[in-house]
């Protein structure tokens, strides 16, 4: 008999080992049913910020269930959603005055794309092209795959994906090519929006680019009437060193997507923030101009309460100091591999460290990926290299000793790979 009926995400069941049964999570660790403790060095797909089962967030969830469960969010509203929206507007880059809730990173991006198209249609502009950055990832729904890099992940669905225009990733020293291409793409007045992951392209291989490029992209977008969508689903909530990555570029996008760390990672929630101009374009006595989007669980009160607790943690605890300390630790510890012939592109952005293992066969499907994952698991480390790209994206409560143990294992793994 089949032991499990579960079909897991991004999992090749024919070749991968049975998933480990997890029975408890705490701080930077997850614990298996047989008692092994694994350091969650990828924050469970980048969602956990303060740590697993962060006490104030768990307590807020518990308290919320005393009075509320899901309520329809059209025609009704509730205090957790109202208070969280007010807080998000205060904390986000200036000018993002409206908050639209959804349930996941992907839906927050779908909402952003629809807002951009709606904005132009409702203001009478014939703009419907979306510009994307090479190697981007924005989710796995049809719309978000359309605005992400094409490859083995979405080849089967390609016939359904819509056409986009692509600017090159701003490789160090060739950033101007990216800016020039974007500028050229905005000239015919058909570009509706540029969507970017600010500063770090996550699933594309933890590729990092400097803040000034984002500043310039915003300048070109603004000058040409193209909206800028910042997908901060991964980069938000301190990951790159600031609350939102856009802050480092000194810009406010027209639309900003946030999810993952919005509830500290405890429970699903997403929000798409928009400027008043984007909202106003949909504000009309003409009902055809309504923003036609919803999902059943929009603004789930329990999730919003978790989001509010996360905001409270950011407001009354020294989270920024924790993020700064972790960022320094990551930079110091990964520096041991700079100039090491076994690695290339040793890099950090805030709390994220990444380095590429030199192998004959690179890329996401590189054979080395699953082998590395198994090697790290044996050492109690939950890491999921993106092919030959090893990255460390831990919760902010990770300790220096945890990271030492982890980077020692990276060292050991590189030796094993070298010896074949
Ligand atoms: N956008 C970015 C930048 C992401 O990294 C991700 C997920 O990793 C998504 C969107 C999609 O988020 P979700 O998996 O919650 O749908």
Ranges where pLDDT stays below 50 over 5 or more residues in a row are: none
Strand and helix order: EEEHHHEHEHEHEEEHEHEEHHHEEHEEH
Provide mean pLDDT, rounded. Answer: 97
Shape: globular
Radius of gyration over alpha carbons? 21 Å
> Tally the helices: what do you get?
13
What is the total tally of β strands? 16
In percent terms, what proportion of residues is strand?
15-25%
Q: Biggest sheet: strands, sense, closure?
A: 7 strands, mixed
Ions and ligands: pyridoxal-5'-phosphate
- Helical percent range? 25-40%
Walk across the major sheet and give the strand order: 4-12-11-10-7-5-6
In total, how many domains does the architecture comprise?
Answer: 2
CATH class of the largest domain: Alpha Beta
Spell out the CATH superfamily of the largest domain. Type I PLP-dependent aspartate aminotransferase-like (Major domain)
Q: Using the coordinates shown, work out and report the CATH topology of the largest domain.
A: Aspartate Aminotransferase, domain 2
Secondary-structure content class: alpha/beta
CATH-level-2 architecture of the largest domain? 3-Layer(aba) Sandwich
The rounded distance between the terminal residues' Cα atoms is 37 Å
Structural summary, described in words:
The chain has two domains: 58-316, Aspartate Aminotransferase, domain 2 (3-Layer(aba) Sandwich), CATH 3.40.640.10; 319-418, Alpha-Beta Complex (Aspartate Aminotransferase, domain 1). It is α/β, with parallel strands linked by helices and 420 residues long. The protein contains 13 helices and 16 strands. The model has no long low-confidence stretch (mean pLDDT 97). The strands form four sheets. The protein has a seven-stranded mixed β-sheet, sandwiched between helices. Strand 2 and strand 3 (37-40) form a beta hairpin. Residues 46, 104-106, 109, 137-139, 197, 202-203, 231, 233-234, 259 line the site of pyridoxal-5'-phosphate (PLP). Pyridoxal-5'-phosphate binds at residues 46, 104-106, 109, 137-139, 197, 202-203, 231, 233-234, 259.
């Amino acid at each position: 008999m089949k032991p499990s009926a579960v079909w897991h995400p991004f999992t090749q069941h024919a070749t991968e080992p049975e998933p480990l049964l997890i029975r408890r999570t705490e701080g930077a660790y997850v614990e298996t049913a047989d008692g092994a403790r694994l350091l969650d060095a990828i924050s469970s797909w980048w969602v956990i910020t303060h740590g697993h089962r962060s006490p104030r967030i768990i307590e807020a969830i518990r308290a919320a269930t005393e009075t509320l469960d899901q309520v329809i969010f059209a025609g009704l509203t509730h205090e957790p959603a109202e208070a969280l929206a007010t807080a998000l507007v205060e904390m986000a880059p200036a000018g993002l005055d409206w908050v639209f809730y959804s349930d996941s990173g992907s839906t927050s991006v779908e909402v952003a794309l629809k807002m951009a198209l709606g904005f132009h249609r409702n203001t009478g502009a014939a703009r419907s092209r979306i510009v994307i950055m090479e190697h981007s990832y924005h989710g796995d729904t049809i719309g978000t795959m359309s605005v992400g890099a094409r490859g083995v992940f979405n080849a089967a669905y390609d016939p359904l994906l819509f056409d986009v225009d692509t600017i090159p990733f701003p490789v160090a020293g060739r950033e101007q090519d990216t800016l020039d291409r974007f500028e050229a793409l905005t000239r015919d007045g058909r570009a509706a929006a540029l969507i970017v992951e600010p500063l770090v392209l996550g699933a594309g291989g933890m590729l990092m680019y400097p803040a000034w490029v984002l500043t310039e992209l915003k300048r070109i977008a603004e000058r040409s009437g193209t909206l800028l969508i910042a997908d901060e689903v991964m980069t938000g909530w301190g990951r790159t060193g600031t609350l939102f990555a856009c802050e480092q570029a000194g810009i406010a996008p027209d639309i900003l997507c946030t999810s993952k760390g919005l509830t500290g990672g405890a429970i699903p929630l997403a929000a798409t923030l928009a400027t008043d101009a984007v909202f106003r374009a949909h504000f009309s006595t003409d009902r055809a101009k309504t923003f036609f989007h919803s999902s059943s669980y929009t603004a789930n009160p329990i999730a919003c309460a978790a989001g509010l607790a996360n905001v409270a943690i950011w407001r009354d605890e020294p989270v920024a100091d924790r993020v700064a300390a972790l960022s320094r630790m990551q930079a110091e510890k990964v520096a041991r591999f700079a100039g090491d012939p076994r690695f290339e592109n040793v890099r950090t952005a805030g709390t994220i460290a990444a380095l590429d293992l030199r192998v004959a066969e690179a890329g996401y499907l590189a054979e080395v990926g699953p082998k590395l994952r198994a090697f790290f698991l044996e050492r109690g480390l939950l890491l999921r290299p993106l092919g030959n790209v090893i990255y460390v994206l831990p919760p902010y409560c990770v300790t220096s000793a945890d990271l030492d143990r982890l980077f020692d294992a990276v060292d050991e793994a590189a030796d094993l790979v070298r010896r074949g």
